Amino acid sequence: MVFMPTTTYGFDWPDRFVVGTVGLPGDRTFYLQARDRGATVSVSLEKQQSAALAEGIAELLDRLRSQDGNPFNVPTETDELLVDDDPLDMPVDEEFRVGVLSLGWDPKTSQVVIEAAPPPEIDPEELEELQASVDADEPIELEVEPEELLSVRIPVGAAKAFVDRTLAIVNSGRPLCPRCGQPMDPDGHECGGPDGF
């Protein structure tokens, strides 16, 4: 087995960290993009992953804010200076497609830590060998180091701005049908609502 070192794109206190899209509603590609000192890294992800990341950060900020005395000064509103409504930096060159997202908190630096990696690649032959060598009744745990990793550390104010922007972008897609709740396309919609239209 050959282990390749992980290529890490690390951003500590980046100039910019956003979710943005390319394309029209209904055919949008979502990107997570970090920029610092002229270096920009973009990774693609699903709309649902974008929403889950923003909701996870919002929950983390709520927990920190609710601690006695709000020791990390977590804001309830986004500072106007941190609002970022600009499009993604172009050109958008995708480093990888996100398969794994993780979220953490560093109390030493009061930073939210976000990591994104592609889906793990497991050699089927190695998996078969491993399965053959263990008891079938015991679960198999594999620790697979990602080939690439985007690691971003941002302060709480930037995290709040990230949540607001991401949720606004997620919710700005196609309008939902009032009958069936599914997204409506501009060129028509087959509704599976209660009346069957």
TrEMBL record:
| InterPro entries noted in UniProt | DUF3090
The superkingdom of the source organism is Bacteria
* Family matches, as NCBIfam families: conserved hypothetical protein
Q: What is this protein called?
A: Uncharacterized protein
- What's the source species for this entry? Corynebacterium glyciniphilum AJ 3170
